[in-house]
Amino acid sequence: MPSSRLTDAPGAARADAPGAARTDDPYAGAAESRRTTEGRVYTVTGGDWDTVVGGVEDLDDERIVVNMGPQHPSTHGVLRLVLELEGETCTEARVIVGYLHTGIEKSLEFRSWTQGVTFVTRMDYLSPFFNETAYCLSVEQLLGITADVPERATVIRVLMMELNRIASHCVWLATAGLEVGALSAMLYGFREREIIMDIFEMTTGLRMNHAYVRPGGLAQDLPPGTVEKIEDFLAIMAKRVDEYEGLLSANPIWIRRLSSVGCLDLTGCVALGVTGPVLRSAGLAWDLRKAMPYCGYENYEFDVPTSTDADCFARYLIRMQEMRESLKIIAQALDRLRPGPVMIGDKKIAWPSQLALGADGLGNSLDHIREIMGTSMEALIHHFKLVTEGFRVPAGQVYTAIESPRGELGCHVVSDGGTRPYRAHMRDPSFVNLQATPAMCEGGMVADVIAAVASIDPVMGGVDR
Amino acid sequence: MTQAVLAEPAPLPLPDFGSEPWWLIIIKVLFVFVFLLVLTLLTIWGERRVVARMQQRLGPNRTGPFGVLQGLADGLKLAFKEDIIPAMADRPVYLLAPIVSTIPAFLAFSVIPFGPTVSIFGHRTALQLTDLPVGVLFILAMSSLGVYGIVLAGWASGSTYPLLGSLRSAAQMISYEVSMGLALVAVFLYAGSLSTSQIVDAQRSRWFIIAVPISFVIYGISCVGETNRAPFDLPEAESELVGGFHTEYSSLKFAMFFLAEYINMITVSAVATTLFLGGWRAPWPLSLFSWANAGWLPMLWFVAKLCIFLFIFIWLRGTMPRLRYDQFMHLGWKVLVPGALVWLLLVATARALSFRDFLLYAGVPAAVVLLAWAFWPTGGRQDRPPPPVERGTPPRYPVPQLDAEPLRRSAGKEVTRA
Lengths: 465, 418
Fold this sequence. Notes:
The complex is a heterodimer of chains A (about 475) and B (about 425).
Chain A: H1 3-7, H2 18-21, E1 32-36, E2 39-43, H3 49-57, E3 63-68, E4 80-86, E5 89-96, H4 104-108, H5 116-120, H6 128-143, H7 151-180, H8 183-204, E6 213-214, E7 217-218, H9 226-248, H10 252-258, H11 266-272, H12 277-281, H13 288-291, H14 312-336, E8 355-358, E9 361-364, H15 366-374, H16 377-389, E10 396-404, E11 407-415, E12 423-427, H17 429-434, H18 437-441, H19 446-456, H20 460-464
Antiparallel strand pairs in A: 1-2, 3-4, 4-5, 6-7, 8-9, 10-11, 11-12
Chain B: H1 2-7, H2 22-54, H3 70-79, H4 91-107, E1 115-120, E2 123-127, H5 135-156, H6 160-191, H7 196-202, H8 208-211, H9 213-226, H10 238-241, H11 251-276, H12 284-287, H13 297-319, H14 325-352, H15 356-374, H16 379-382, E3 415-416
Antiparallel strand pairs in B: 1-2
């Protein structure tokens, strides 16, 4: 709230106002004003309109309120920012979300536990594997089968998540670069993401929205040639990260646009529940992969890059470093890959279909269908029950959190013992981190608002769910 | 040579302007007009191809050979688009603004010399539409007039983003015009004239880029600011102000702003060529032969130099992020203007003392120092504020200790069974 509003006298009941002179008027001086969290509120009950207008007059009319978004080139989809500007300086920033609400959490309550994966993968569309894994980890925990998930499935989950982290940071570099005006950075970011998308497509059949991680394991194993492809990518990407840093890290304009911009110190981060690169840029090495390991992350060798600068430039450097750390984890995960099943042995949970590549793309294996349709009535019944109704999950609730590219991605699922979630809620890091926007932006210039929002890296699909 | 130029009063501008037959003038006017239009189309195509190449993609390659006709296709497409006038717009001004912006852009080119005297249908005439004793001032005046188009466009749109864009652009163009003008004064001191043809003439033995290198650098930086090109494209900063001053414009009116921007880019490149790179004069090894500076051939040198500048404009756009408004003003007022003033003082002193080699040997290192100062990589990190939380004071909100080991907990997460 600008200070001028705090100090100015209440606009109503002025002695010189024409309404105040008539003492017999019951409405004299009735235009009361009070300050609320929404700004000043006037209660007008009769009286003279000029009195009310006079009360507002002394507000500074140099201010412009700019409604930035939901249709704006640099608000990451449909974020809406309401900025109050004094010249080029932003005195007040408010974030409005909800323009991409898809009802995913509610929809989850009407589908089986396995089908839920297809929903959650669409939330934060830049990190689908993280959504899937967070959801599956919590379902597995409710089922009590965390220890039974095959080792190979867990390693492939790690592999995919880390590839996804690099892809997500590439998109961050691309969009942030574009927003700061570095056109080429945008193309470079998307160029490398494309290689990762190819790997995803090869593995899951889709570039996004994979539904690859399932409760109990994975939809299918890595196809032949994937490991070689990932190894090729590792060799390329290590050089490309150096290339990004070579292009930007010493660029005077890039430094000036990002350093000392969008500052949020550790106190601010902790008070607002901010996690991910923004928190680590404030100095706290809080990474759930280290702090509360899951998927066997405690067995991997990697560092958590931090900085104490707490500005956009630190966040840029941290993301670049995180890409390198992810490359290290991917290399280790490739070493850990041992042949074996990728789905839990329990046939009451494991999705019964076997996928195979046919002439018309990926689909149910014809051999498998032939077997259950033609040879075993019990197999057919089992298949039918599991696919249409789904498995039952013991009643209870669980919260599982993993480290997504944007911070703590938590999944809270509640089961009433049925075949569908009673409630599923995601604690999406973009949503929580967006709270920090006013703290980062107010007092800066318009251009700093853009840089600060970019440094949070919000994905509106995750924010609104 | 310096002595000679100083001593000899500058001859009046070429006397044959105005005494040409009317058809020759029309041919020249048409030529300048068509030249600018065609070069604009080629520049748009070239920009998209070159930036695409820098970004490892293809760029337009479907329309015509190598996609050369892409600009023409886009222009035609724009002409057929729906022309929207916002309800809040101030109609007359809104309609006038693109015209105000485009016409001066064309006019500025009328005093640019394309080449020496040639023979056209038996008439000896210079390859230049006209010349004035104050030719360069005319160019500066025209580029200042162009600002009105942008300012009026932003104001008349009746919308927030265009207003902010036009305010930025007004501040930007006025600031950079100052350093631009100051940079040119050094050239006038050497040439002894403001007439473009005479300035080219004065570079017979040595281009002014060698004589006054710092002026060239200052001019080069300010002309990027003057034309609203990246990294100084703040008035139309897409990520902040959507489209800046032309957010509310569509169809042909938008095309006119687009055209004006590119023509301005060509104009400042042509001015830089004329004032610093010897205009139409052949580059050094070729300039030893007399045929290189006679007839129609110099037009080739002129266009080639122009294209080098245009390439640099495109190169900048492919490489540089956008400056922030205050940093941009800082560069203009606190680096370029004082730099230009000090340099001007040096030039004037050296001219008065006829001490020409001083500038040659002092200028080049000074130009390097100036550039390094303006773009020193660590410059931005120096003015950072102290760490937000003072050490020793208890934080207002409980925060974990930073020097602690990263927390390690076993994978056991709470499960509550109902």
